[in-house]
Amino acid sequence: MTDRVRKIYDRLIAREYRNLRSDAEYDFAAEFAAAGLPLETRAGLRLLRLAEAERAVMFPGDRIGFLRTVKRVPPLQTAAEWETIHKTRFVFDGAQVGNISSDYEYTLNVGLETRRAEIVERLKGVQEGGKAFHLLNAMLTSIEAVYVVADKYRAAAERAGARELAAALGNVPRKGAGGFYEALVFFRILNFALWLNGNKHNTVGRFDVYMRPFYDKDIETGKLTRAAALDLLEEFFISLNFDADLYPGVQQGDNGQSLVLGGMGADGGEVFNGLSRLCLEASLELKLIDPKINLRVNKGTPDEVYRLGTELTKQGLGFPQYSNDDVVIPALTRWGYEERDARDYVVAACWEFIIPKVAMDIPNIDALNFPDIANRVIRDKLAAGGNFDEITEGVKAAITADVARIAESVKNIFVEPSPFQSVLMRDCVRDARDVSEGAKYNNYGIHGAGISNAADALAAVQRTVFEDKTAAPDELLAALDADFAGYEKLRGKLLAAPKMGDNDDCADGLGCMLADAFADACAGLKNERGGIFRPGTGTAMYYIWFSERLPATADGRKRGEPFSANYSPSLSARSKGVLSVIQSFTKPDLQRVCNGGPLTLEFHDTVFRNGEGTQKVAALVKAFIARGGHQMQLNAVSRAALLDAQKHPEKHRGLIVRVWGWSGYFNELDIAYQNHIIKRLEFTA
Predict the structure, then answer these.
(1) Which of 104, 161, 175, 669 is surrounded by the most beta carbons within 10 Å?
(2) Would you list the domain boundaries of the chain?
(3) Is 476 helix (H, G, I), strand (E, B) or coil?
(4) What is the C-alpha to C-alpha distance for residues 358 and 335, in angstroms, rounded to an integer?
C-alpha cells in the first residue's frame, strides 16, 4: 500500500467520512401526492432533488470521490398511500428494487449520453401521458441527476487541484470510459447513484469480466503499470466502504456489495485473469469488508486460485465464498435459464445465484422453517402412536403444504418503480418497461432454514424411540414440553444421536430426504410473473428469527437456541472432523436446491499458522467442489479473540467475521449474532 493510499485508508478506518453527513431531512411524498404525480415521475424527481442536495467533498489525494452527505433517502409515498397498498398488496423488503445485478458492461462502454439518446428515440414511439411516457421521462430525469452530482465533483476536483479526477469527469459518465481509471470512477458514480436512488444490495457483479478490457488495454499500451493499477484498485475498493453506515441491511455490513471473480465465461471459456489476481491482492492488503469477494470455480480451476483464495480466508475476512460452476450452471439451466445466461451467473447480496443484466429475480422472498416442520410432525405423530415412516411421510406433506402457503402469500406483489435502475438493465429502454414490472427472468427464491437441525431431530427420534427404544414417545413429548428440565439424561441421548456432519447415513439420509422434499414441493409452482420458485439451502437471518420462537426440539436443542447458519452442522454437533462434514453435506443432490446457501465452516486461526495448514484448507475446498458441493464459505476465527472482543471492543475495532452470507465488523453486530458465531463448530489443526 502506497503512502497516498494509506492516508485514504486511515481516513476510512477513523470513520472521518461520517462527519460529512448533513442533518437535513427531506420529505417529498406529500408534495408529490398532492400534485398527483405517478410513481415513476416521483422516483426520477427524488433522485434529482437528492443529487442537488448532495455536497461534493474532496479529501487530499482522493482520485475516486463521491462520498454521501445526504443521510436518508425519503419515501416516495405518504403514510396514507402506504396504508392503502398494504391492505391489498404483498410488500417485500420495503418494495424497493434491489439484490439484482446491473448491465455495467454496456453502460461503462457507451456512457449515459448514448443511453439518453436511446430513451429519447424510444419516446417517439409511445403515447404522451401514458405509463411508458412517464417512465422514459423519469429515466431522463435520473440521468440528469447523475450529471448534477458528477458536475459538482468535477468542479470540486478542479478547485482542489485534482486534475486527474477532473479530467476523468470531463468524459464520464456522459461518455464511455477511456481506460481503467475512468471505468473505476464511472462505476463509483453508478454505485453512488443507485444507493441515492433507494436501491438496496447493489452488487458489483463480474468485475473481472466487464472491467478487464479497460485494464488489459492500459497495461498493454503502457498507460498503466501493474503497480499503478493496484494502487487505483485499492482506492476504488476503499471507496466502496465509505458509505457503509448508510446502506440498509439487517446488520451493518449486510449491504450486498458482492464482487465475483473467475469461473466459466458466457462463451464457455475460463474467466480468471490478471485482473482477478489483482483484485485478490488488493483485498488481501486492505482487509476491508467490502467488496465481498466471491470466487467461481469448477473442475478445471487451477490450484493457484484455491491457494489465493485461502490466503484471504487466512486473514479472517470471511471470504472469498466459493461457487461451483459444475453444479450451479446445470441447476440454472434445469430451471429454465438459457445456457449463455446461466454461465454468466453472479452472486446476489449473500449467496443467491442471479443473472446480471436481464433478471429481476427475487432470490430471498421467504424461508422454509425445517425444524418447525419436523417438530410439529414429530409431536403429532408420536402423540397419535405413529411409526417412523409415518413421521417422514408427514414431514414431506408438511413441507409441500408450507411451500404452497409461501407461494400463495407472495402473490399480488408491489414493487416501487426504479427508473434509474431500469436505465442500467439491458432491455428496459427498448421495452419501455420499468425493471420493477419484470424482466427476462422473474423467479423467486425460498431459503431452507435449519435443515441440519431438522435432520438431527428426525435421526434422534428414529434412534432413541424406534430403534434402541431408550425413550418412550410419551417421555420424549413430556421432555419437549418441559424444555428438558428434569429430563437431562434423555436430552443427553438425543444429543448423542447421529448428526448431519458425522458422515452417518442415518442423519445424512434424512437431510437428503428433506432437500428432495423441498425441491419436489417447489417443482411446477409458478409465481404471478411467470417465474418459478427456487429452493435453496441458505438461511439468511432466519436462523435467528425462526429459532427465537421455536420450543425445544428432538435434536436436544432447547427453546430459543439458534439453528445452524446456512448449510452447516447444528450448534450441538460435535463432528468427527471436517472431512466428515464435507462428506455429509455433499450427499444431497444440490442441483435441486441451488438457490444458494453455502456450507459454512469455522477454522481456528491456528490452522493457518504455517504454509502446510493453508495448503490443507485449499485442498479441502477443492475436495468439496470435486464431490459436487455447490457453495462454501470459511471463517478463520479464534473463540478467545471473539470473547475478548465482547469484553473489550475498543481493542478489536477491525475484527471481521462471516455472519451468514456477508462479512461485517464483529463489534457492530447485535449480540445474538456475535454469540452464534462464538458457538459455531470450530475446526483446529
Answers:
(1) 104
(2) 3-250, 362-597
(3) helix
(4) 16
